[in-house]
């Protein structure tokens, strides 16, 4: 899925930049380059070298996307990497050296950098949250609050920062929320319906009270999301779940809502298994990069 998504995302980004958004178009490579009217100022035969550096500290991510950009622009630009996805980087560190036709480098630079700076931003923020969980068994999860068209890319970036993926989409796990419960009639009925429909898929139930948690435990769901619980309620939920575990039951507990870089550590200390944070992919601040021809 990821490999295919990289190819499609890069094509869409290049088409957006070069003004060819007709999915049925079959423009030649030379015609695509002609669309970059500024690059046309440079002789087609000119070969150039360039260096990509980071201006700030963070976690690098996006290598495959950058490579795909220049592959789709003819494959004549050689990329010599000095980092891998997941590597910590510092200000002014050399990330990559490029060599090839000057037109191709300049046509692809912004698209390649857009992917790298965005995904590195996700990975860097993820690491900040993960660091706050040090000393606990709690694991950080992402959400579906992603940039449209970049779901798998952002979720990959989360793993590069040390986080884990929640469900990828609506197809790989059940997440039974308030409206689903209301439509099904109860938590128990919703869980049973899920088991009957797809016995192989994980079933998670979102609850808003200890009473609803009890219902989800009795229904034997796999995971329970504690939505907007305060710390006192989280502690009570963990204690209740431990009592169920002592009887051979119990679930994994996930915390969601009101999670910030300042609150996540205290939430983790309650003993929950997971904390999901939409900000990882929703509040994206790009890593500052710079590319210069030599």
From TrEMBL:
<dbReference type="InterPro" id="IPR036068">
    <property type="entry name" value="Nicotinate_pribotase-like_C"/>
</dbReference>
<dbReference type="InterPro" id="IPR004393">
    <property type="entry name" value="NadC"/>
</dbReference>
<keyword id="KW-0662">Pyridine nucleotide biosynthesis</keyword>
<feature type="domain" description="Quinolinate phosphoribosyl transferase N-terminal">
    <location>
        <begin position="36"/>
        <end position="120"/>
    </location>
</feature>
<comment type="function">
    <text>Involved in the catabolism of quinolinic acid (QA).</text>
</comment>
<keyword id="KW-0808">Transferase</keyword>
<dbReference type="Pfam" id="PF01729">
    <property type="entry name" value="QRPTase_C"/>
</dbReference>
<dbReference type="InterPro" id="IPR013785">
    <property type="entry name" value="Aldolase_TIM"/>
</dbReference>
<feature type="domain" description="Quinolinate phosphoribosyl transferase C-terminal">
    <location>
        <begin position="122"/>
        <end position="292"/>
    </location>
</feature>
<comment type="similarity">
    <text>Belongs to the NadC/ModD family.</text>
</comment>
<dbReference type="Pfam" id="PF02749">
    <property type="entry name" value="QRPTase_N"/>
</dbReference>
<keyword id="KW-0328">Glycosyltransferase</keyword>
<comment type="pathway">
    <text>Cofactor biosynthesis; NAD(+) biosynthesis; nicotinate D-ribonucleotide from quinolinate: step 1/1.</text>
</comment>
<dbReference type="InterPro" id="IPR037128">
    <property type="entry name" value="Quinolinate_PRibosylTase_N_sf"/>
</dbReference>
<protein>
    <recommendedName>
        <fullName>nicotinate-nucleotide diphosphorylase (carboxylating)</fullName>
        <ecNumber>2.4.2.19</ecNumber>
    </recommendedName>
</protein>
<dbReference type="InterPro" id="IPR022412">
    <property type="entry name" value="Quinolinate_PRibosylTrfase_N"/>
</dbReference>
<dbReference type="InterPro" id="IPR002638">
    <property type="entry name" value="Quinolinate_PRibosylTrfase_C"/>
</dbReference>
<dbReference type="InterPro" id="IPR027277">
    <property type="entry name" value="NadC/ModD"/>
</dbReference>
């Amino acid at each position: 899925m990821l490999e295919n998504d990289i190819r499609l995302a890069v094509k869409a980004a290049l088409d957006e930049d070069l003004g060819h958004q007709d999915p049925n178009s079959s423009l030649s490579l030379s015609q695509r380059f002609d669309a970059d009217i500024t690059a046309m100022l440079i002789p087609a035969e000119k070969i150039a070298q360039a260096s990509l550096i980071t201006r700030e500290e963070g976690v690098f991510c996006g290598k495959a996307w950058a490579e795909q950009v220049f592959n789709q622009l003819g494959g004549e630009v050689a990329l010599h990497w000095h980092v891998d996805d997941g590597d910590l980087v510092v200000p002014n560190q050399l990330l990559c050296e490029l060599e090839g036709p000057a037109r191709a480098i300049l046509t692809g630079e912004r698209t390649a950098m857009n992917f790298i700076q965005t995904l590195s931003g996700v990975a860097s923020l993820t690491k900040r949250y993960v660091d706050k969980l040090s000393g606990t068994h709690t694991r950080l999860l992402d959400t579906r609050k992603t940039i449209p068209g970049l779901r798998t890319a952002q979720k990959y970036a989360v793993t590069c920062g040390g986080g884990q993926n929640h469900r990828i989409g609506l197809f790989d796990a059940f997440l039974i929320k308030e409206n689903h419960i209301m439509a099904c009639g109860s938590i128990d009925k919703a869980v049973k319906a899920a088991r009957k429909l797809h016995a192989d898929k994980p079933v998670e139930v979102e609850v808003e009270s200890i009473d609803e948690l009890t219902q989800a435990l009795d229904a034997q769901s796999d995971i329970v999301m504690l939505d907007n619980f305060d710390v006192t309620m989280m502690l009570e939920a963990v204690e209740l779940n431990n009592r169920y575990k002592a009887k051979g039951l119990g679930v994994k507990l996930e915390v969601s809502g009101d999670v910030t870089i300042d609150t996540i550590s205290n939430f983790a200390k309650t003993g929950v298994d997971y904390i999901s944070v939409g900000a990882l992919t929703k509040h994206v601040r790009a890593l500052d990069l710079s590319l210069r021809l030599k």
